Give the backbone structure.
Amino acid sequence: APARSAAVKLESSLPGRLREHLRSFSSTVQILQQPRNPLAGQQSVFETLLQASGHRRCVRIRYDSATEQQEICTKLSPYRLLFSRRSWYVIGRSSLHRSVRTFNVGRIRSLELLEDRFEVPRGFSIERYLGNAWHLIPERGPDYHVRLRFSKMVSRNVAEVAWHKTQQIHQNPDGTLDFSATVSGLSEISWWILGYGDQVEVLEPPELRELISKRIANMAQIYGLRAECSNQDAARADAADCGQ
């Protein structure tokens, strides 16, 4: 709402002819937003984080951690607020983990503003913290060199996008595409790979190939069980019809 109000004020201050040109262009251009977390009921949490980060004050949060599969409590020094793709995140030092971590604002269950102060370490930046993370979660340990082969059907789609700062692509004579990147951790990139289904093959590293294989096997088991249940339901329905 504030951004829209500012845009309206800016438009009203423009000369008449320029304002008409702007309106004619705006009627021909439309941007479709990606699905995003609306932070329903989290406005006060977001505003407190913004205040805490700006005034260098610590907060204590209760957080529903997807990684740890439980609710955790930690004292957080909120270095930065970041919007990426679909959600708002806060990045800062966690007393529980004794390191800088990424927290999804939408998963913060409660927040208390503390009097304790903090200083952002000299030289800290989002880019340096994320390193070669595929998205937002840099994993511990050495980086991995990932090499993928995409089918001809999706090769152009993959080649048109700058997915990662380290990526390199090579178009093969048969129309397939070899994609390589150096990433900090395999979990995040694995979900992206799975989104391409049978149109991509992991060539290396073997750890990623094994991870994808396990997730595909789990998917096959889920659908296999569902198919079995469907057959059983159909058999029961046939038996009921015969009984009538």
Q: What stands out?
A: The longest strand covers residues 70-84.
